[in-house]
């Protein structure tokens, strides 16, 4: 997760072999994506997504992990340039319940995923979740296990999904123990973030 990091810092990570970078503010990300074009970086959008930013995400990113409404998914699909491969898409599921409001409820994840799978500009890859912070690995593993169960349900319905985007610096071990295929690490790679990005 390279949010708040400069393109110079990201370039260092690229030189060290890191290929995938996650951003969660479109405005902050676009200049970095432009500065590093041709570098071989794969860009993941993982943040709150407003309808008026869908076009930018569809044009600049390779992945979007934070799809939680059909309207947004449709806008991403509509704006995906025809010459590009479909945008790799994950549905964000609210596995922490009280801690955050982002993501769909578990019961809504499968119907939304089925609708996303039908959109031509997107390719459904799997699910993303953020565990409750600071509650210890046992509770976090339960939350991650919920996401894994949903991915298995999607497979049982015939979807060819392969991605469980879960785990960050604080809880990556619990996430990997529950089957994460993609962890989103910021602090443990780049160090503490200096400031919170303005909302
Ligand atoms: C910032 C962020 C991360 C990385 O957090 P760290 O604690 O720095 O590893 C992971 N996932 C999302 C959605 C983020 O916004």
From TrEMBL:
Transmembrane segments: none
Transferase found in the keyword field: no
Role: Pyridoxal 5'-phosphate (PLP)-binding protein, which is involved in PLP homeostasis.
Family indicated by similarity: Belongs to the pyridoxal phosphate-binding protein YggS/PROSC family.
Domain of life: Bacteria
Essential cofactor(s): pyridoxal 5'-phosphate
InterPro entries: Ala_racemase_N, PLP-binding_barrel, PyrdxlP_homeostasis
Name assigned to this protein: Pyridoxal phosphate homeostasis protein
Alphabetical keyword list: Pyridoxal phosphate
Pfam families referenced in this protein's UniProt entry, alphabetically: Ala_racemase_N
Lineage: Bacteria, Pseudomonadati, Pseudomonadota, Betaproteobacteria, Nitrosomonadales
Organism of origin: Usitatibacter rugosus
Hydrolase listed as a keyword: no
């Amino acid at each position: 997760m390279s949010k708040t990091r400069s393109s110079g810092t990201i370039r260092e990570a690229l030189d060290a072999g890191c290929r995938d970078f996650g951003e969660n503010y479109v405005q902050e990300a676009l200049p970095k994506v432009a500065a590093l074009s041709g570098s071989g970086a794969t860009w993941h959008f993982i943040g709150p997504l407003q309808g008026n930013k869908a076009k930018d995400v569809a044009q600049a990113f390779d992945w979007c992990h934070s799809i939680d409404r059909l309207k947004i998914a449709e806008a991403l699909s509509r704006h995906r340039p025809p010459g590009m491969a479909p945008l790799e898409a994950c549905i964000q599921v609210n596995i922490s319940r009280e801690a955050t409001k982002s993501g769909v409820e578990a019961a809504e994840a499968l119907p939304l995923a089925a609708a996303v799978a039908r959109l031509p500009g997107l390719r459904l890859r799997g699910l993303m979740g953020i565990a409750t912070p600071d509650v210890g690995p046992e509770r976090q593993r339960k939350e991650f296990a919920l996401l894994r169960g949903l991915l298995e349900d999607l497979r049982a319905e015939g979807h060819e999904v392969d991605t469980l985007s879960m785990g960050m610096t604080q809880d990556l071990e619990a996430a990997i123990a529950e089957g994460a295929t993609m962890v989103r690490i910021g602090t443990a790679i780049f160090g503490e973030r200096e400031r919170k990005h303005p909302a």
